[in-house]
User: Fold this.
Amino acid sequence: MNIKILDSWLREYLKTSATPKKIGANLSLTSVSVERIENYKNDFVYDIEITTNRPDLMSVVGIAQEAATVLPQSGIDAQFVKPALQLPEIRLKKSPELHITFDQKLINRICAVIMEVKIKQSPDYIKDRLDASGIRSLNNIIDITNYVMREIGHPTHVFDYDRLLNHTLNIRESKKGEKMRTLDGKEYTLSGGDIVADDNKGEIVDLISIMGTANSVVTNSTKRILFFIDNVDQHHIRKTSMELGIRTEAAILNEKGINPEYAKEALARGIELFQTLADGEVVSDIIDIYPNKPHETVITLSEEKINAVVGIDIPLHKSKVILTSLGFFVEQQSDQLVVTVPTRKSGDDMMIPEDIIEEIARVYGYINIPDTLPTFAAQAYFHLDKNEFYWEDRVKDTLKYCGFTEVYTYPMVSETLYEGPLENAVTIQNPLSDDMVYMRRTLIPSLLKVVKENQDHEIIQIFELANVYEKNGKDLPKQMLKLGGVIHKPHASFLEAKGVIERLLEELEIKKVNFKQSDDRYGALLSIEKEELGSIEILDKTTITFELDFEILLKHATLKKLYHPVSKYPTHVEDIALLASASIQTGDLIEEIKKQSNLIREVTLLDKYQETRTFHIVYQSYDKNLTDKEVGEIREKILKILKDKFGARLKL
Assistant:
């Protein structure tokens, strides 16, 4: 999350002599990340990145308090000016009618008030502050709601009170199929379970905490408004916002879990601005419904505990000053601090002692904590062959040296790119586009798409190492790591693709890989010890693909080397030309030849012409010189078994 704030706006709540550059540097070292500081007219604007667990800092007031805490750690004077917000005293003889009903499970807090206002343009300073924050100025009423959200940190909303039928808001979960039109004119069909407000007659008048609707929005003729602040269940907001694709700043803030304590402050600040900028007059009692109030958390910290976690000695009084500046209530008891987390800071981030110690450490400054390597009682040896990332790098390097380029493609594919029956596909509920609906089950279509988009290259050799996905019953989809590749060039050769894979397997020390001709396509199926490894497929004269199961590769890969001593006796080499049917695989012939004697060191295909295949055979013994008679006996054995098993015979 990012927020932009003008320096002059920040200094309304921060009194300091520090320059914008100093403020930005100190915040970046201890708290939020100030990504850049830019000139804006005669001012400066901070562009600040806020982590998602700190929605309390998505405001001018939040950043001011944070800066006032961290600047003194660098010896810079700074003081936080707390907003002096007070709800007005109201004495009315009669209040306009307003009925609010709700499901208590959905609502944390609701604050509301009815006001008479005059719509006009906002003053320049409001426009400038909103513009610098990336918010477009519309009119004084809408601008005030955005101004309060940016300054206090809680989204707010206004209804045209007179457009609310029966002056009723019924806050509930939506029903499947309900329709609504948002204030930007777009119509949405709800899937059910969304938090909405209707007029008690079934017509939706607000998509709570996300966006208003066209039938209740403020217009130029509005005379009375309902200033409305809701704090609801954040999980509902996240689901609805992502499902409908409505990513307003209000939705982004509310889905992070804004503390409901901010609602009353936002109400008070809003009333003050309506009175000042819109000639506003409060004409109703103030409504404050608070069914789910957060509880205060009390955490006890010892000085020993703080120092043990941080790793250095931090004086207890310094820890107390830091926590007090951050808004905690702190009482020192001997060598302990009793810290009360106020309701405005309570939440999942402030539950245990380590949460509080983290606040102390970051404000103290991680930069002030010396770098010290931890000591180890015993050191375990690191085994490369047990590390998946090592093998991934090794495979990628091998393919790189074979002339391949690694590519990255999306795991989501369209219906045309999905390979297999669509009923077996893992389907995305809220796809980014029609081209990203299904999770792929193979890498090959994605790689072929890359080839298609790069036709200006005559030779393309690419590979990708990525996951594919399959349904896994009611559980999360099964992810499988695959290695896919494409060779695209004039006169692409199956043997070239086979050679690349053999080189890769050799690098991984994987032996006894079987290449078997595929029955249903041009290419080969690969297996290791009866485990299916993958396939090579010839698509046409210019394109060959391969895909391997990387998990099987990992299972058999090893760094162990088997040493074979060099024989001191010479080799005996001969070439045998065999006549064999073209349907017989060369690999099967080679394997059968090797089986006939442990004196056979190497068998390779030397030449092939029609049905004639010439094999180069190397014989060698570690114990003696081989005689022609001994080699002849092995040759006869080879010829007999090949004739009996394959019908192959010696070509004379």
Remarks:
- The longest helix spans residues 628-646.
- The first strand starts at residue 2 and ends at 6.
- Residues 492 and 507 are 23 Å apart (CA to CA).
- The two ends are 81 Å apart (CA to CA).
